[in-house]
Amino acid sequence: MRLCQFDDNRLGLVEGEMVRDVTSVLDRLPSRRYPFPQGDDFIAALPSLRDAITAAARGGSSKRLSEVRLLSPVGNPSKVMGAPVNYQKHLNEVIADPNLHHQNQAHMQAIRQSGLFLKATSSIAGPSQGVVIRHADRRTDEEVELAVVMGRHAQAVPAADALGYVAGYCIGLDITVRGPEERSLRKSVDSYTVLGPYLVTADELPDPSKLDLQITVNGELRQKANTRDLILGVPELIEFASSFYTLLPGDVLLSGTPEGVGPIYPGDVMHATIEGVGEMTVNVRGT
Question: What is the pLDDT of residues 104-163, one digit of tens each?
Fold first, then answer.
């Protein structure tokens, strides 16, 4: 399945170039009272909702994808985790460019030494919402990544079992303000985690280890790679992350970006593609 959130937080099933409105399925989710549990109720319930989604799509209204405003396909993750320098060529370019590492040794280490970082969930945006440059006096870069959405509670999961905990995948743009501060600060600006265009469920993408990905800015190719080049692949990343955190349904793991990162400015147009996942266009604007 390919599932999206669109317009006024409606739920859609994507079939080709059409979006079938299946928002009625959300009425099946449990009613909650404060304090609300962590995690995304819809992602947690997704395995039991698939038949209902299919049935709702048969009787629901539909629109063309080009006619809707696509939001983030994940509504309530408890955390967004990032995997820094998880492509060897990107690590090489970071080491070679002081504008990328700012003399911070942690930025010049491979992922097992530097560890993961966390991004504020308030930084999440959908493709239609775009990226808003906050610090126009500083360099802000684009980074395209395969985003992994967890479907089950996971703690200390071995890599051999890890893909069984995945709900699905989407494209992730990890937007970054360059500077000497901690990654989590510079990457957690509002709109600096773009997720989309929809969630592709794991059964449609059983092997995330050999996917082409790329991004263009104003039509110019910036980054192009394949997930086979990840230093830690998706199963190993889940093993690593779950050794530190309890992963909850809806949690997002950004798998890392390849070489070719570069600055973006208000007025730019980014177009990102990942094989088997989809493509999305994201506009950049100023405050």
Answer: 555 546 777 889 999 999 999 999 999 999 999 999 999 999 999 999 999 999 999 999
Name residue 64's beta-bridge partners. 18
Query: Phi first, then psi: what are they for 73, rounded to 5°?
Result: -75, -10
Consecutive H or E run containing 45: helix 41-59
In sequence order, what are the beta bridge partners of 286?
Answer: 133
Helix (H), strand (E), coil (C) string for 109-133:
CCHHHHCCEEECHHHEECHHHCEEE
Asked if 82 contacts 176 with a C-beta cutoff of 8 angstroms, the reply is no
| Interior angle at CA 105, CA 230 and CA 264, nearest 5 | 65
Residue 284, strand partner residues: 131
What are the angstrom distances between the C-alpha of 195 and each of 7, 201, 277? 15, 14, 12
249 phi-psi bin (left φ>0, alpha ψ -120 to 50, beta other) = beta
Q: Which of 136, 126, 117 is nearest to 240 (CA)?
A: 117
pLDDT, one tens digit per residue, over 208-222 is 999 999 999 999 999
Q: Which of 238, 172, 166, 240 is nearest to 205 (CA)?
A: 166
What are 233's two structure tokens?
A: 């692949």
**pTM higher than 0.90 for the full model?**
yes
Contact between 188 and 122 (Cβ < 8 Å): yes
Q: Which residues neighbour 227 within 8 Å (Cβ) at sequence distance 6 or greater?
A: 146, 208, 209, 210, 211, 213, 233, 234, 255
Rounded to whole angstroms, how far apart are CA atoms 238 and 248? 12
